Amino acid sequence: MRAAGASTPSSAATGEVHLHHTLLDWLTHWRTLWPPLGADDRAALEALVATIARHLLRFGAAAPEDAAALRAELQTRLLASARQRAVRPVALFAALALHALDLERLRAEFLLRAVFGDSAGAPQ
Fold first, then answer.
1. pLDDT in tens, 36-94
2. DSSP letter at 87?
3. Pick from 69, 68, 98, 67: which is nearest to 81 by CA?
4. What is the model's pTM?
5. Cα separation, 112 vs 101, whole angstroms
C-alpha cells in the first residue's frame, strides 16, 4: 500500500492503494507489533488490511446513498474472513473490524437523533 509518493513493504501483496499518510504510519507501526507469523497468517492479515483499505477508498468516493451497501459488502467480506480462519489471528482482527462497523452505525444513529430528533431513526 502506498500514499502519494510513499510505499510500504506490503505494496506488492496488496496492490497500489493510496491512503492518508497517518493511516499508513499507523499500519507500519501495527505490523511491527505482530508476533512472528507463518506465511499463511501474514498473508491473511495483509489481505484483511487490503480489504479494509479498498473499502475506505471506495467509501470516501461514494455517494451517501451507497454507504449502506458498501458497509454491508465490507461486513460480508469480514465475516467470510473470520469464518474461513476461525482460529487464526486474522479472525480476531476481522471481528474487531466488525465491531468497528457496528460502532460506526451506532454513532450515525446518535448523530441523526441529535440533529433531527428521536424520530430520525424510526423505520418508515
1. 999 999 999 999 999 999 999 999 899 999 999 999 999 999 999 999 999 999 999 99
2. T
3. 98
4. 0.74
5. 17
Number of Cβ within a 10 Å radius of residue 34: 11
Q: Cα separation of 55 and 71, whole Å? A: 8
Average pLDDT over residues 97-115: 92
Report how many helices (DSSP H) and strands (DSSP E) the chain contains, helices first. 5, 0
CB 28 within 8 A of CB 11: no
Rounded distance between C-alpha atoms, residue 18 and residue 1, angstroms: 7
Interior angle at CA 12, CA 10 and CA 16, nearest 5: 95
Q: How many Cβ atoms from other residues are within 10 Å of residue 53's Cβ?
A: 19
* Contact between residue 103 and residue 95 where contact means Cβ atoms under 8 Å apart: no
Q: Estimate to the nearest angstrom the gap between the alpha carbon of 123 and the chain centroid.
A: 27
Distance CA 74, CA 54 (A): 9
